[in-house]
Give the backbone structure.
Amino acid sequence: MLVLGLETSCDETGVALYDSERGLLADALFSQIDLHRVYGGVVPELASRDHVKRMLPLIRQVLGEAGVTGGQVEAIAYTSGPGLVGALLVGAACAQAMALAWDIPAVGVHHMEGHLLAPMLEESPPAFPFVALLVSGGHTQLVRVDGIGQYQMLGESMDDAAGEAFDKTAKLMGLRYPGGPEIARLAEQGTPGRFSFPRPMTDRPGLDFSFSGLKTFTLNTWQQCRDAGDASEQTRADIARAFQEAVVDTLTIKCKRALKQTGLNSLVIAGGVSANQALRQSLEGMLAGLKGKVFYARPRFCTDNGAMIAYAGCQRLLAGQHEGPEIKVQARWPMEQLPAI
Ligand code: KG4
Ligand code: ZN
């Protein structure tokens, strides 16, 4: 089945063509980062307008690269939530219009299920069951995954998501949006051990997370250094390193607990923060000790993209699922509500 996937939940317009027999045929992405950077974060109305501008040229580009005509597309998958409503509506309206014109089915995909399944596009994909750590700009979740749509939430963030913590902390330290890659870059220059930050909620049982206190701790440390006349680039890098180490260590401790609790030794990491090299290394070290394996997508499929939506949608379409003709999106949508296939 040849599926066209559309992703418009936030600040990236992603389009891809996935074929159930031949795999991924083409994918293209337009990132709106430069558009939102001057505001220090995503401006929803600007995001929606830009998706409108980029969508059709990207679809034409992907069809052209794959050597496919519109008439050959057999189904459309689009992100129908969670995300920014205006942005989601652009993808949903476009998908439903094409489905109507070409008389083919359309399926709405859960954005986090898309992320969760992105490692399936890689050469040695994970086998069910596994534990998944979903770490994006809007979510931090630990999930037991027994199959597509068989999700048991083990733990999640009580406040800021991991990516959100990176973004907000970066902003407080005068770094550019999005903060994750900026902090990661700066942390590489940081001196190990100069600062040590707390590992929130690791001293008590449970698999939930809280990152907002860490953000405040980082800000206070940066302010104390500046008040003492030390606002050097090296100090900023040392603080970035301590912050990243605290986040990575906290995520690693909770993943280890989740694996122990479930008796599993396969871990999938997905979402924008799973592109973080320090996190990958730390989790690989931990899994080596358990004789297990960590699975993740190539960096450009860790952040938002159309390929994960085309893949996830294709699995649901093959199982007979599709939408009616209505244009419906959901800003909030718990992943446990998804049907199993
Ligand atoms: O999955 P994603 O593209 O969008 C959402 O669904 O939210 O994730 C974006 C998040 C941002 O918060 C960004 O700062 C973070 O992922 N991110 C990173 C890295 N690359 C992206 N965080 C830490 N290290 C990175 N290398
Ligand atoms: Zn995402």
Notes: The radius of gyration is 20 Å. The longest helix spans residues 233-262. The pocket of zinc ion (ligand 2) is lined by residues 111, 115, 136, 271, 304 (CB under 6 Å). The longest strand covers residues 23-31.
